[in-house]
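TASK: fixed-backbone design
INPUT:
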């Protein structure tokens, strides 16, 4: 990917040379700084976010063994025990998707969104002048007791058919669930991020059974997070896998 991006730099240099001869049409002007910024966007925007969500999903499922059983049962029914999960299986795994949504509700990888108001506006009786720096606390919104029943509990079923949140999606249309933001500055990597997150958690759940080390009980799991620009677990998750499938996993 880095090589592909750097190929643009050659084109950009070509554009500069062409410009000097007055022939710049059809060239894309990207500087070394532009390319570094794009690579940084993708690397930082797309790695830590997904990694933190995977760890939180595993931690929540280990904390709620009955939910883990439901996810694993769906995988056994849909995929079977003789192969790993493929991308094409994901659309047939609705409960897994509910578990991922519920993880992102409780643990949005970017808990604070930083924006600037484009126009004078009024929110809940407060006047907010144009060009004010505003922060949206997505973490708090996801746990708002007036928006979510049993807000602090991990309950993927709330997003399943018949659940209170069955119609809520992750595209920013529902302001009570904004892990990818909303509107024109929302995450451009949402589909890629969800794909990586769902496929990884699906395979971890499908290929292995998981226990906690040293006789630790699910109730003993520390679910504290570090609150900042991202919200990773305060204590790294340690989990012990044992093979679940009837076939090799590599
Ligand atoms: C679970 C995974 C991910 C989550 C939860 C996530 C979340 C977010 C959020 C909340 C924002 C800010 C939206 C706002 O300010 O309103 C954002 C922006 C962004 N994300 Fe993601 N993201 C994820 C994965 C990715 C991936 C895989 C990529 C790229 C490969 C990516 C690239 C970006 C970029 C470039 C921006 C800045 C967009 C802009 O400023 O207009 N993200 N993301």
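OUTPUT:
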């Amino acid at each position: 990917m880095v090589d592909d991006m750097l190929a643009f730099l050659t084109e950009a240099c070509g554009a500069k040379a062409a410009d000097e001869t007055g022939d710049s049409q059809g060239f894309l002007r990207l500087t070394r700084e532009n390319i570094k910024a794009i690579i940084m966007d993708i690397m930082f925007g797309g790695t830590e976010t997904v990694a933190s969500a995977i760890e939180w999903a595993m931690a929540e499922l280990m904390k709620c063994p009955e939910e883990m059983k439901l996810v694993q049962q769906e995988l056994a029914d849909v995929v079977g025990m003789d192969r790993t999960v493929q991308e094409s299986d994901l659309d047939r795994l609705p409960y897994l998707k509910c578990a991922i949504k519920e993880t992102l509700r409780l643990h949005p990888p970017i808990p604070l969104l930083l924006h600037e108001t484009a126009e004078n506006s009024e929110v809940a009786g407060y006047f907010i002048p144009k060009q004010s720096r505003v922060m949206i606390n997505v973490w708090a919104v996801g746990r708002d007791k007036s928006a979510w029943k049993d807000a602090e509990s991990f309950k993927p079923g709330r997003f399943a058919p018949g659940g209170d949140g069955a119609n809520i999606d992750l595209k920013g249309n529902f302001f009570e669930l904004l892990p990818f933001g909303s509107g024109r500055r929302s995450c451009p990597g949402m589909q890629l991020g969800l794909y990586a997150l769902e496929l990884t958690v699906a395979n971890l759940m499908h290929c292995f059974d998981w226990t906690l080390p040293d006789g630790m009980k699910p109730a003993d799991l520390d679910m504290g997070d570090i609150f900042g620009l991202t919200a990773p677990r305060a204590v790294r998750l340690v989990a012990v896998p044992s093979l679940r499938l009837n076939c090799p996993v590599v």
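COMMENT: Strands lie at 112-116, 121-123, 126-128, 133-137, 208-211, 240-243.
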